[in-house]
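Problem 12. The chain below contains 161 residues. Write out its predicted structure in C-alpha cell notation.
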Amino acid sequence: MDDKSKIIEKKHRLSPEVYQGGNFVFFTICVKDRKELFSDPNVVREFEKVLLEELNKKNCTAWIYVFMPDHLHIIISGKASAADPRKCISMFKQRTGFWLSQKHNGFFWQKDYYDHILRSSENLVNNVKYILNNPVRAGIVSYWKHYKFFGSTEYNLNDWE
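Solution.
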C-alpha cells in the first residue's frame, strides 16, 4: 500500500472527558458524498427513533436536532456527570449505518463528524435558533416551522416563534 492510499483519520483535538456530563456539544454529521438521504420521511422517522433510543440509553438530552437533506445538526448534553454525548453519537451512527447497509444500498455516513463544545459565553437558545433556521438559510422553506424534520427532547418547539 503506498502512502497515497492510506486513510488519515481525523483526531479530535479535545480529550474524551471534555464531552462528558452537562457540556453542550454541537454535532454535524454528514451523509457520505453529501447524498440526499433525509428527504425521505420514512428514513428520517427511522433515524429519529434510533436517536431517541440512544439518547435514553446513554442518559443524554437533545436540545435540538434537524435532519437536513444530506446531514444532521444536533446539540446534546449529558444528564449526569458520567453521560457521554460522543458515545451516544457513535452508537447512533453505528446503528443507523447498519440500517443503511440493510435498507438503503449506496448510502453511508461520512467517516467522522464535526463537533463543537459550546463555551459558557455561547448562548444555547441562540444556537438552537441557528440550527432551526438552517432550512431557511438553505432555501428549503421560508419559515423554520414549515420544515418537518426537527425535534427536541427538552423544548416544546411548537411554542417557539
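Discussion. The mean pLDDT is 91. Students who got a different answer should revisit the alignment rule from Section 12.3.
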